[in-house]
Structure formats: C-alpha cells, structure tokens
Amino acid sequence: MRTPGDTLVELSPSNGEENNGFHPNSIPEHELSGIWRRRTLFLKYRSRVGKQQQSKDSVFFRDGMRRIDFVIAYTDENDPKKQERRKIYESNLQRVGLELETEDKSESEDGKTYFLKIHAPWDVLTTYADVLKIKVPFKVNDIPENREVPMEWLFTPLRLPDGIMHPEPDYFTSPFDKSKIDFFLMDNRETFFPPSTRNRIVYYIMSRCSYYKEDHLCKDKKGIKRLLNNGTYTAAFPLHDCRYWTRSKDQKCESERYTLYKHWAKFFLFYKEQPLNLIRKYYGEKIGVYFAWLGFYTEMLFWAALVGLICFLYGVMTYNQNEWSQEICNDTIGGQIVMCPLCDKKCGYWKLSSTCNSSWQSHLFDNVATVFFAIFMGIWVTLFLEFWKRRQARLEYEWDLVDFEEEEQQLQLRPEYESKCTNQRLNRITQEMEPYLPLSSKCARSCLSGATVLFWMGLIIASIIGVIAYRLAVFAAFASIMKDSPTNDIEFVGSLITPQLATSVTASCINFVIIMILNFFYERVAIWITDMEVPKTHLEYENRLTMKMFLFQFVNYYSSCFYLAFFKGKFVGYPGAYAYMFGSRLRNEECDPGGCLIELTTQLVIVMAGKQVWGNIQEALVPWLRNWWVSRSARSHPESLYSRWEQDHDLQDFTQLGLFYEYLEMVIQFGFITLFVASFPLAPLLALLNNILEVRVDAWKFTTQFRRPVAAKAHSIGAWQEILNMMAVFSVVTNAFIVAFTSDMIPRLVYLYAYQTGKGNNMEGYINNSLSIFNISEIPLASQPEDEVNPSWFNASVITTCRYQDYRYPPGHEKQYTHTVQFWHILAAKMAFIIIMEHVVFMVKFFVAWLIPDVPSDVKARIRRERYLIQEYLQNYEVEKLKSQLSQCNSHCTCPPDSCTQGMGLSERL
Fold it and tell me: What is this entry's stated membrane topology (predicted)?
C-alpha cells in the first residue's frame, strides 16, 4: 500500500528503471506485453484503494491538511516541447512558493489525464494579498443596521434563513498589509482567506509565471492562458467544495455549493430572494454583482409587466367600442370599398373588409392606453436605473468595492498586454516603469478594428435589405395564392391568414435565422479584433468587447424592427406614381389601413420570444448534454473512485467571457421592452416570465454544470451601465415616433376633434375620410393587375375608382393627387406630439434623477465611519507598536539614558 506522499508513475519498457525488483530488460519480449498490462492494472487498482481511503470529495492534498487551491490537467502526448514547458512552468511556480502535488494518469478514470494540484501556503497568500490590496476585517461593524421593513410579515414567505443570507458577520475592512499582520482580526490562518480569495491569488500568480528559461528574452512566454491555448495543459480550474446534491463528509469543508443548490438553484424556489452574500463569498464579487443586477431588474419588471397587462386588458375591454374596425368589417362600408392593388401585376383589387381581422387585432395594442404606457415606460426606466445605482452603491460598500476601480487600473495589467508591449515608460501614479503601446500602433489597431466593425454592420444592413426584398417578392406570391379566397363573406373575415400576415411571419422567421447565423460568426470576430487592440487591463478589455458586441447586436436585432416602425409604408407614393426599391420592379410595401403596428408587434414577438427560448436551450440543455457525454465512462465505476478534481474536470469550463454573454442577453431584452414597448405592452410580461426562469437556470448552471469560475472583482456592471443609460434616453424618442408615425392614434384624434362632422363624440366616417380616391383608368399599364388575378366580383365597367391610404385630393380636383390640408394638419400634430411627449418624459426623468441620490445617506455615513476608523486604528496601532519597542529597548539596553540613540529615536517618533 502506498504512503500518502507517494506519486505513482506508470512504467514503460523503455525507461530501464527498477521498481520493487522488477526488471523489464530481463523478461523475454513475447512475455513483456502481458506482464506490463497486468502490472498497469495492479497499479490502477492500488491507486483506487488509495483513493477509497480519502473522501472522494476531499479538497485537500493527500496529507489531508493542505487545501487544493487550483488544479491543472494535462495529457502526456510525448511532445518534448510541451513536456519542457510544463517542467519549467511548474518549477517557476514552486520557486514563487506554491506547493504542487501530482496525480498520475494511472489514478484517473480515463487512464490518460494527469492532475496537478496546487496549494498556496500562508506566506504566499499574505505576500500577494498585500500586492493585490485585498481588504480584510480589522474590526466588527459597530453601526446598527436598520433592517425593519413596513409590513415585513408580508415578505416572510420570500425570505431565506438569515444564516444563508448573511453567512459572515459584518466587519470594517482595510487593505491587507503584511507588515501589520497583527492589526487585522485573525482567529485561524486556514480560514482567514476564503477559498474564493485563495483561488484568485493563485490564478494571479499563474497568469504571470513564465514557462521559458530566459524570462527577459521571451516576455510573451508566460501565463496559464497561453499554455492552455497551445495545448500544454488541457484545463485549469479551482475546485468546487463538494458535490451539489449532498454535503461533504469532510468537516473542514464548507459545503457552500450544496447550500447554494438547496436554497438558490432549484426552480421551485423562484419566489425566494437570492442569497447574494453567499454567492459573492463562493463565486466572487463579479458574479455576485451580475446576479444582484439580474434580480433587481426582474423585481422592477414586475411593475412594468403589471401596467402593461392593464393596458392590454383595456384594449380587450374596449374591443367592441372600436368604431373604425366596425366600419371596416361592415358589409355596407368596408365591404363596398374597393382598394387599389398592393403590388404590380400579381395583385388584384381587393375589398377593405378583408383586413377586418387585422384591424381588430391592431386595436389590442393601438389604443389610448398605448400613449400612457409609452410615457410610463419612459419614467419606469429612469426609476430602474436610479434605484439600481443606489443598490449598487450599497453593494460596493458591503462587498468592499468602493475603491476597487483605481486598484484595477493601477495594479492588474493583463498578461497579454505585458507580453506584447515591449516599450516601457514611467507610470505617474505608481512611479514605476510599466509597458505601454505606442500611439502609432494603437491608432493603426483601432482603425483596423473600426473598419471591421463597420464592415460587419454593413453586412447586417445588407441582409436586412435582402429580407425586405423577400417581403416585396413573396407578398405578390401570397396574394396570388389567396386570390380565390372569398373576401366578402363571414368565413374569410374570421380567417387568421392574410397575405400581409403570411409575409410578415415568414420574413420574421427568416430574419431570426439570419440573426443567429451572423451572431455565431461575429462573436469570434469581435474577440479577435479586441485581442488585436491589446487592451491594458481586464476591465478595459471587457469594456471594448462590450461596445463592439453591443453595436453589432443592436443593429442585428433591432434593424428589422426599425424598418417596420419607421420606414415601411412611409415612402410608397400613390397609384400612378409608386416608389420602387432601388429602381427595381419591387414596389415598396404598404401598411394595412390599421397601420404597421400589428406587423411590428408580430416581428417583436417572434424575435424576442425566439431569442429567449433559444437562449434558454443553449444555456441549460447544451451544457447538460455535454456533461452527460463527457462523464459517461465514469458512471460505470464506483462513485467512491471518482475524485473531486475528476468530477470538476468533466464539467463545462466557464470562460472569461461567460458572464459577458449573460449581460448581453439581458441588455438586448432590455432594448426590446423599452425601444419598441409602445407597439407591444405585453413585452415586459414576457421578459418577466423569462427572467424568473433565467435566474434559476443560471443558478442551476453555475452550481451543477460548470466548473467553479476563478473569483474576480467588479464594483459595478461596467460598460453595461452606460449602454442602459443610452438606451433609456433613446427609448423615449423611439416610442414617441412609434405612437406618432407607426400607430394610427394621431390621425384618429385629428379627425375626432377637427374633421368629424357627425353628431356626438364618435369616430363615425373615419375610415372613409382616411382613404383617398384614384381613377383606375390612370393606373400605368405596367402596374395594372393581370386579368386572372382580379377577384370574380371585380367588374371594370362598373368599378371605375379604387381607394388607397393617404390624404390626397381626388381626381378632377384642381390639385388632384396632391396632399390635402388634413395631411399637413396630421403631420403638424404628430410633430407636436413628439415634442410634447419627449419634453414631458425628459423633464420627469431629470427631476426623478435629481431627486434620488445615487448613494444612500446611510451608506455615505458608513464609508466615512470606516475611513475614520482605519486612520484612528492604524495610528493607535503604530503608537502601541512604538511603545512596545521602546519598552523592550529600555529593558534590554545597557547604555546611559541620554546616550541611547535607538531609545531617543523611538521617543521622538512617539
């Protein structure tokens, strides 16, 4: 039986070494292979017996004392270069002070993977905690916290146990200083730095450790990331502390993963609050801030969803009061109005009553409540951002992140930046020499990056133009297929399928597929060009990548919605003078008499819902299937032989950009529910339902399907904050334009108050008023419909005019086919509405932003209190230290009191 310190190495016939009296060279060749096979099986059996003596969930070295802070995996491919790199790299890690222990491939279940376990001893931890200025406690927080909430009993079902919500006492903290180690509160060295801090320190060392002998000659030959990229190592990760479905049997293990799974990652706990402090403690502040933001965003969505649902219900309840739809569906009004063809040649004349169903549907979203909801969402988004700033400020203080941004900029340069920048200059802040990128190189890289982004954005616009061309071409085909449908009976009026709807749905689905394909390619391009720019810090890297990805995603996801909202039906012309797409024979699309709003709603539902469903499938199902496939061989072995590092090795790797994609998904959703919410009041409700699922899916994914990420710090949501602010301002403009130009609200109000001639306050006659007349005989021959496409009821000798949606003088008028005065009145009303709505919403936004301070007053007081205590305690600490030294000097010194220079110096310092 091997001792705890043994390392098993699989023998090969060529090594010529002795092992327990076994001499490979003394065995005949025909017997050698069988003996080696049996010996390998014996070694593997012996190693498994050794494993059974130690818990499969052990996160310690074989001695059971030293904690495993990081694990590196690799396979022996007999590549001399990789072997040399590993040898030098591991030697340099040991030279820094890290302790290593290797698990031979004979001890792994696949029989080919080595595991290098890394432990950071106390001296290394204290040294780098000082370098990284990690904040540690020095005094228990003595400020009483008022957690009383009015009617708190109502929220009791939502609460988690206090031990889960607050796993640690509240302390005042200060940056660690190794020279003042007794200044800090320290009960136990082993638990003073939590596992998340330990793995952060080890990863910092690993990222800067060289794997080349002459470090000063090859500055780019360093860092675990490069070793992973070139295949020297296959994986590097910190360990989970236990299996997620049961506690660890080792009493020294915290079992925080199990606690998170039990109280956070289960879907039926969707109504419970999140244990943010435990998430931060286990995964680090960066992931903790993400879940805090996601939870807060979901809570705020509840109010937007509630108001949006009320507005939708208003549209349902006023369904029968929709007078313009009643006129469209009326056989004596809409049934007698003959409309001009919607396309050349292949589209025939049609009756207005054929749009009855879409008119009723449009009323559900296009009513008076739409205006109120657009204004409400402009105020809601301001409240959301302002209250999040307050929540974020509180988290910054509670999680010791107040001064983190400065530390990040000054101390933590990216290893890639250090290796690629050969020039040196003086840092004015630290007064030390540091690498830098020359301005000429920076400009060249930025220009290439910008050109690449513009090219891909142009590619998106080209694809959207292709979809528009598809819409124009396929509409004629659908119209031709449906030409024999009975357009004047009850059956067709109740039908859900029209050429407009069929075109809109198929085009939206095609557009969604194109969006997904372009996303797949651009994600890789964005990472490549960001790497090429060589950002200085991790924060700068993520901010640059964020802006590139968001610009692309903004154009990719929203361009089709912008087309439907602001371009479709706006540049059509009129019969006899239609506008065509880029000089082709594809005539620009027209809107339904009820407007393009219902098409915008359809596009929004398909893209938004499709993205959310696809995103959840990718986030949950794909990692689960991959883990199931990777771990299939281990399931055939006894569970007691499946070590902690092997279990984690078989999980999916959570990459550095994993959190970036989570933010991006939510910000794109935020754009859907703010930029175009006037067209679909139920969008916040769909987002709320998705986010309730999203929180638990992400929690389940982090807890069960991914390796433990390296702990990282972040004081905020970074560049996403500015993106949300920009979208909040832009959403006011887009919603004002949607109500004014996409909705039919303003023309109805102008007609009601200026042109309605009937008795009472009603919309009688509005449909007839909103349609202009054109003489069929004046339609150009190239645009006239073919005889076979006209419906059976059309008789050219009886029907001499057709109607179209516009405000133009009729034939025979001295200004025939030019815009009427009513058109200019409506345009003026639209512009006035936009100006008034924007000013009202912006005034309320700025007033609310001014009224709500970004940092709560109690947090300001706590920050000032902590800074005061740090100064006071440090001063007292130095005084006591000097007194102790003076006392020691006086007790041991033999010099006369007036001639002792050491004692006089200490006295002067006191």
Answer: Multi-pass membrane protein
